[in-house]
């Protein structure tokens, strides 16, 4: 009986994090993970590599997050350059969790090294790919260490300067597992006013026995000072996970300048669980073209 209970707890702990959520930063977390239609910079790594050409900048970013449910530490660093003919990123992500199951000391850790490249086909359409190597280790009963290569792909179509659509597939080719499941997602990103952005996304897992979905949406309001050199983005969103049966509220804010940007985001479950998470990142910019737009993103 005790073994069955332990296995049940282990199964539920699997769903607390995987590569589809562990790599997300404070901006996308704050708006309900809904930025596949407008993902730029490090945001494009976890959501849609085809979004890299949406702005033109060289940016270095580092972030840290903590998820209380499984005591997870989430670290990410990246360098993205979208000023070239072929925009691209190099990145490293780490996720280490310590699920507390019946007072047993357990640990999972995952290291991911990867690169993303976007291919602008026309002024409004782009295609992108990500290649990554992961190394996952665990001492949880019933799980095994695993490593390998896997690949993502995405597309972005900008109808006008104010609205764009994005779609992506994750872990489409290569090694797949519970931590790196095959999945697909898409969304729309709209900027009806220069200081307001709205977005809505959905994502589905495509593995045997689990076709759960995450639906999310959010908004960002961007306030600038008189000369437009400094801004404060305020973000809010909502997210529902059909597999976990949980609904989350999320939010965040930032401080954006011409040479740096600080963002903080978080979410907490309001239905179906007690999950809480907070994450922050710091960005430093090199050359920026069209900086008025990229500062808001």
Provide an overview of this structure.
This protein is mainly beta and 297 residues long. The chain has a single domain, classed as Outer membrane protein transport protein (OMPP1/FadL/TodX) (Porin), CATH 2.40.160.60. It is 11% helix and 56% strand. It is built from 5 helices and 14 strands. The protein has a 14-stranded antiparallel β-barrel. Strand 5 and strand 6 (146-160) form a beta hairpin. The longest helix is centred in the N-terminal third of the chain and has 13 residues, at 2-14. It is globular and about 55 Å long. It starts with a helix and ends with a helix. The relative contact order is 0.19. Residues 1-15 and 291-297 have low confidence and may be disordered.
What topology emerges from the helices and strands here?
Blueprint: H1 2-14, H2 19-22, H3 26-30, H4 43-46, E1 56-67, E2 72-81, E3 88-97, E4 108-120, E5 125-138, E6 146-160, E7 163-174, E8 183-193, E9 196-205, E10 213-224, E11 231-241, E12 246-256, E13 260-271, E14 276-289, H5 291-296
Antiparallel strand pairs: 1-2, 1-14, 2-3, 3-4, 4-5, 5-6, 6-7, 7-8, 8-9, 9-10, 10-11, 11-12, 12-13, 13-14
């Amino acid at each position: 009986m005790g073994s069955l209970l332990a296995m049940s707890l282990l199964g539920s702990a699997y769903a607390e994090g995987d590569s589809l959520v562990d790599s997300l930063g404070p901006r996308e977390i704050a708006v309900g993970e809904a930025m596949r239609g407008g993902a730029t910079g490090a945001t494009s790594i976890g959501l849609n590599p085809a979004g890299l050409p949406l702005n033109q900048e060289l940016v270095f970013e580092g972030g840290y997050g903590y998820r209380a449910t499984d005591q997870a530490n989430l670290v990410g660093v990246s360098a993205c350059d979208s000023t070239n003919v072929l925009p691209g990123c190099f990145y490293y992500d780490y996720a280490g969790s310590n699920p507390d199951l019946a007072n047993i000391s357990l640990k999972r850790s995952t290291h991911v090294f990867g690169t993303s490249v976007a291919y602008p086909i026309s002024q409004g359409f782009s295609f992108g790919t990500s290649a990554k190597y992961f190394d996952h280790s665990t001492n949880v009963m019933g799980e095994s260490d695993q490593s390998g290569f896997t690949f993502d792909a995405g597309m972005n179509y900008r109808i006008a300067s104010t609205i764009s659509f994005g779609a992506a597939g994750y872990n489409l080719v290569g090694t797949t597992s519970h931590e790196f499941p095959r999945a697909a997602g898409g969304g729309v990103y709209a900027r009806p006013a220069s200081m307001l952005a709205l977005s809505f996304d959905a994502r589905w897992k495509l593995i045997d026995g689990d076709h759960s979905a995450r639906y999310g949406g959010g908004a960002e309001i961007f306030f600038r000072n008189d000369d437009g050199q400094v801004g404060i983005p305020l973000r809010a969103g909502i997210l529902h996970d059909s597999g976990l049966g949980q609904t989350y509220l999320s939010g965040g804010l930032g401080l954006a300048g011409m040479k740096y940007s600080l963002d903080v985001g978080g979410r907490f479950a309001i239905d179906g669980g007690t999950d809480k998470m907070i994450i922050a990142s710091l960005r430093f910019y090199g050359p920026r073209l069209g900086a008025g737009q990229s500062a808001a993103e």
